[in-house]
Write a sequence for this structure.
């Protein structure tokens, strides 16, 4: 039985592969494979063994697996010792454990929060729960790198 004050958490299991866009009104834990875009109004946890080729936006993000794509954490972004991230990070606070791997550009602090607040949809800070999920679009800076070059294959 869940405790009354426990946050709601959707879990995507380790034997699951998903391609597309996911929007979570609360928090999510990804343990499988995902490709596309993830937006959560709470926390996103990328578990150990998980692989995400995705743009990720949430209030808080914890990476303990692999992420290839841009990450926008409005509050806090944590890279554990198992984290492997390739992509740009924009966050209010960044915590990096010894052993974490990160390749990309990073914007942290008050300037990062200004950038996130100025994003056109601000899906995390200004929930649009009354609209259908299909109308929520991530910030332009969250477009996965492979989506920009998909038509330019040599």
């Amino acid at each position: 039985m869940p405790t009354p004050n426990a946050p709601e958490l959707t879990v995507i299991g380790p034997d699951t592969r998903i391609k597309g866009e996911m929007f979570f009104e609360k928090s999510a834990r990804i343990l499988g494979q995902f490709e596309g875009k993830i937006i959560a109004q709470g926390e996103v946890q990328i578990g150990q063994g998980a692989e995400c080729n995705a743009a990720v936006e949430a209030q808080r993000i914890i990476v303990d697996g692999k992420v290839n794509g841009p990450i926008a954490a409005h509050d806090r972004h944590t890279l554990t010792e198992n984290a492997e991230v390739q992509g740009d990070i924009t966050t209010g606070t960044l915590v990096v454990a010894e052993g974490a791997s990160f390749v990309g550009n990073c914007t942290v602090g008050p300037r990062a929060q200004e950038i996130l607040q100025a994003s056109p949809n601000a899906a995390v800070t200004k929930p649009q729960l009354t609209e259908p999920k299909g109308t929520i679009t991530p910030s332009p800076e969250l477009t996965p790198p492979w989506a920009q070059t998909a038509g330019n294959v040599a």
